[in-house]
Amino acid sequence: MMNQNCFNSCSPLTVDALEPKKSSCAAKCIQVNGPLIVGAGPSGLATAAVLKQYSVPYVIIERADCIASLWQHKTYDRLRLNVPRQYCELPGLPFPPDFPEYPTKNQFISYLVSYAKHFEIKPQLNESVNLAGYDETCGLWKVKTVSEINGSTSEYMCKWLIVATGENAEMIVPEFEGLQDFGGQVIHACEYKTGEYYTGENVLAVGCGNSGIDISLDLSQHNANPFMVVRSSVQGRNFPEEINIVPAIKKFTQGKVEFVNGQILEIDSVILATGYTSNVTSWLMESELFSREGCPKSPFPNGWKGEDGLYAVGFTGIGLFGASIDATNVAQDIAKIWKEQM
User: Among 159, 149, 175, 183, which residue's Cα sits nearest to residue 62?
Assistant: First the structure.
C-alpha cells in the first residue's frame, strides 16, 4: 500500500492508463497504472506503440493541442525528411508504399496521425508539466501539470517516468547588439512558412544548418534576396548559388546589419534559423540521467535509462532512427518488469 504522505491533502485517483478519469479535487491526484510518457511527438508515440505491443498500459501527456506539434505548427512548407524513409519509420508501422524516399512534411504528419490511430494512442492534450521529481518516501514519481486551457492543476503518481519531450522543445533565440533597434520583422524559423511573404525583400537568415539553407533557397525561389550568415571557410561566396553568404553579425542598427568584416547591408527581415534546445531541466528535478543542458549524459545508444524508473526517448542526436531504438529499449525494459509483477 502506498504511503499517504505522497498525496498531500488529496486522495489518489487510480486510473486506467488509456482513459484517465476526472477528479473533484481542486488539484487532481492521479495514480498511473503503468508508465507516464511526457511528450506526444514521434518519440512519445513510438514509445506508446511499443508499450501497447507488450500490453503495458500507460498515460501520455502533451502540452500542445495536437500530436507532433513541432511538425504540425512549427515547420516550413517545403520541409522534407532529410534522411531516407527506411530510417524514419516508427516501430510497428511502415510508411505507405507510395511515399517517396524523402517524405514531405505533410506526408510525415499524415503518417504520424495514422500511427496514433493505428495504435489507439490518445494523449492528454493541452497539459503542460511544470515540475517532476522522485519521492523516495513512496517510491514514485510525482509529476505536476497545468492545463493550457483553464489553468487547472493535476499531480500524476507513477512508478515509471518516460521523458519524450526531445531535443527540440524550445527555440534558441540568440542576443545581438542593437536588434531591438532594427525595426523590421524578426522571427524564429519555427514561425516561417513560405517565402511568398518576402518577395522583393532583403532577408537575413541567421544560421546555416538544414533549416537555414532550406529557408534561404525557398526565399530565393520566391524572388526574395536572401543573405545567410555562415561562420566558416565558405564566407564571401555563394553556396549554393542562389544564396548570398555573409560572415558573423557584429550589430544591428535601424534597417541595417553590420558584419564582423565591416560590411553593412540594408535588410527588411531577419529569420533566426538558430535551432532548438531541450527544456527538461526547467521542470525535471533530477541530476543523474540528464545533464544541465537537458540531454542524457551518456551518448547514444546508452542514454535511455536512468535511476528509479526514469527513462529518456528521443535525445540521441540522430533523429527518428535513434528515437525508435530508444523507444523499443525503454518499452522492453518496462515490459519485463511489468510481467514479473503480474
Answer: 149
Encoded amino acid at 315, one letter: F
CB 13 within 8 A of CB 23: yes
**Residue 228 to residue 131: CA distance in whole angstroms:** 39
Residue 314: which of 332, 290, 286 has the closest Cα?
Answer: 290
Q: Do 123 and 62 touch, CB atoms closer than 8 A?
A: yes
Q: Which of 237, 7, 24 is nearest to 137 (CA)?
A: 7
pTM value is: 0.90
Q: Which domains does the chain have, with CATH numbers?
A: 28-169+278-340 (3.50.50.60), 172-272 (3.50.50.60)
Report the C-alpha gap between 151 and 136 in whole angstroms. 28
* Matching residue, cell 547591408: 265
Task: Render pLDDT for 80-135 as a digit per residue (tens, 0 to 9).
Answer: 999 999 999 999 999 999 999 999 999 999 999 999 999 999 999 999 999 999 99
Q: Looking at this protein, which amino acid is placed at residue 146?
A: V
Computed on alpha carbons and rounded to an integer, the radius of gyration of the chain in Å comes to 23
Query: Which SS3 state, helix, strand or coil, does residue 113 take?
Result: helix
Q: Identify which of 318, 320, 289 has the alpha carbon closest to the alpha carbon of residue 305.
A: 289
157-169 residue pLDDT tens: 999 999 999 999 9
Please choose, from the candidates 9, 86, 91, the residue with its C-alpha nearest in 3D space to the C-alpha of residue 43.
91
Give the Å distances, CA to CA, from 259 to 49, 169, 250: 49, 30, 5
